[in-house]
Amino acid sequence: MYIAGRSKDLIIRSGHNIDPLLIENALQAHPAVALAAAVGQPDRYAGELPVCYVALRPDMQASAEELMQFAQPLIAERPAWPKQIFVLDAMPMTSVGKIFKPQLRNDAVRRIVVEEIARMCDPDRVEVDVAAGGKRGMQVTIKLPAGTADLRSGIEKVLDGYLFEYTVEIAAG
Q1: Which end of the chain, N or C, is less surrounded by CB atoms within 10 Å?
Q2: For residues 47 and 13, is the Cβ–Cβ distance under 8 A?
């Protein structure tokens, strides 16, 4: 049985429950950060790894590396240290002004899928679509260009270790 979505936004890393607020509060303490949102990025070994998205205040600058160095000492639990920080021009928001985390989760999944595909071929030739749904809560569709059927089994083998559903399609050609 799989649960699609959670009542709490926990990130579960190798059975360790991580409260995203630990990460978000640490990053929002940085003077350049306007908003921060932590989500779980799929990982074959740990299940999920924490990643964080930040939007900076107007006329402020900070690199992902700078933000990581700032936040780590403020996050008491080492497993909660974000694996990556992504600086966005604008944070996705709901109509009532809350951060729209489902879009960030989709982006985190898309990034890891593209990273895996890049080890096998040019990811610009492949279309990756991520949407909520399926038994595991996330459905990934990968569309390969015509004439790349040989990549299908390699991509499927790599993605089998992740906790999301996927399909690999090959364009007619």
Answers
A1: N
A2: yes
First-to-last C-alpha distance (Å) of the chain: 38
pLDDT > 90? residue 56: yes
**Range of lowest pLDDT (58-62, 116-120, 145-149, 160-164):** 145-149
Inter-helix orientation angle 101-118/149-159, to 10°:
120
Are residues 64 and 78 in contact, defined by beta-carbon separation less than 8 angstroms?
A: no
CA atoms within 13 A on the CB side of 130: 19
Count CB neighbours of 102 within 10 A. 14
Ordered structural domains, the chain, with CATH: 11-99 (3.30.300.30), 106-170 (3.30.70)
Beta-carbon contacts of residue 88 (< 8 Å; ≥ 6 apart): 53, 54, 55
3-state helix, strand, coil in the chain (%, to 5): 30, 30, 40
Whole-model pTM: value is 0.90
